[in-house]
Hints:
- The chain is mainly α.
- It has 20 helices and 12 strands.
- Helix 6 packs across helix 7 (225-235), helix 9 crosses helix 11 (324-336) and helix 19 (468-475) crosses helix 20 (477-492).
Amino acid sequence: MNNKRVRTRFAPSPTGYMHIGNLRTALYAYLFAKSQHGDFILRIEDTDRARYVADAVEFIENTLKLAKIYPDEGPHNGGNFGPYVQSERMEIYKKYAEQLVESGHAYRCFCESKSDDMDNSATDANDNKKFGGYDRHCRNLSQAEIDKNLAEGKPYVIRQKMPLTGETTFFDVLHGNITIANEELEDQVLLKRDGMPTYNFANVIDDHLMEVTHIIRGTEFITSTPKHVLLYQFFNWEMPTFIHLAPVMGKAEDGSISKLSKRHGATSFGDLVNMGYLPEAITNYVALLGWNPKNTNQEIFTMDELINVFSLDGLSKSPAVFDYDKLNWMSGEYFKNMTDADFASAMTKFVNLDDNLKSKSEYLAGLLKTRVNKLSEIDSMIQFLITMPDFDSELYVNKRNKVTVEKSIEILTPAFEMLNKISDDEWTVDNLNEKVSNFTAGTGLKVGTVMWPMRIAVSGQKVTPGGVIEILYLLGKKISLQRMQQSLDNLKNL
């Protein structure tokens, strides 16, 4: 298949939202296909009806769009290999299941078992135990018994007839040759009583018919792959290339490492976006969770740059650890590179600005974008601009700048008079900077000594995004003077 046009697929089940592992699988499949000028397919595997979530398909499609992963084919993209939703392909699966029965590689099982009506994707994908499942009671029924059961209308499933001896070997790009003894393989259900296929059957049929050349998925499917390999062999179909990705791990507060889950914090793409990380930054970070570009130390990539440098030999066999510190750093780099206008637009979804601040949102953005790692941090950072914090005289004491309560009153009294003389039209950053600088020089004091009480008087807190000039400008003349006068009165009444 290596000489054919590369075709990869992302085939999620609509049973919930997209966690980081799902996103990474989709991203790697997309990057590899695009790097090889091939096709990336979105296929919805909805055979597990018991766990079906109504809005999950739409959520998956929206998430891919946010991450800038654009399928060439899919439920709403068209293509020549549809339908791209498994529940719409029932007759196809029935045809191939019956074909396996005719060729002697599958059989009808009339035994009653609730587990036969459940999708076996979850159990098979995580089952490393030696075979101990179905006892193969119906495997060797005579034709007469089969005909009798059919005549009586007995319901049945179709099971794959596994070899009882020998081994099945397949090659994985990351892990090399993998061999599993056939005696460990259960005669898995291919078609359930209601005619719905199981995951392990449907994905093989679909991958072949959709001409998928490279299957990229998690290591949890390694133990299921021999079953898939045998199906390819039974049909005499060409085998795709398998790439099983190492899992994404999370680090707990005690330093222990385990598979990424909700106990490690936000683990879905949507959760991270809602926390205020840019979708581009999340995608960039996820790309580096188990893959490294060759011949470069670059870490910040556009999607086009990722496509240009992506290769399978950059994938790691070792599990990757999701690191919020690294994500925060990367997110911060994205913010720094944004225009003030773009950052202002992005932050409006996370903060409620009054009319005054809305008119100065781009200026505010310029102050904030180098100080945050996620947009959800902004609201608490700028609350002081909307509501003056409670008065605290201790804030005016600064030993380093030799500022005391008495010194603060001494500085703020003439500072208020100086600011009051500036007209509304002159209340600009440049003019404020000039006036305050001249005032400071006239006091004969150090800059820090003057600026400290002025900033505390109008902000009410020690740490602020921006200094005195920036805060005065953002607040405007009226509110700045009101705050400074109230602070002076509070200091004098101590």
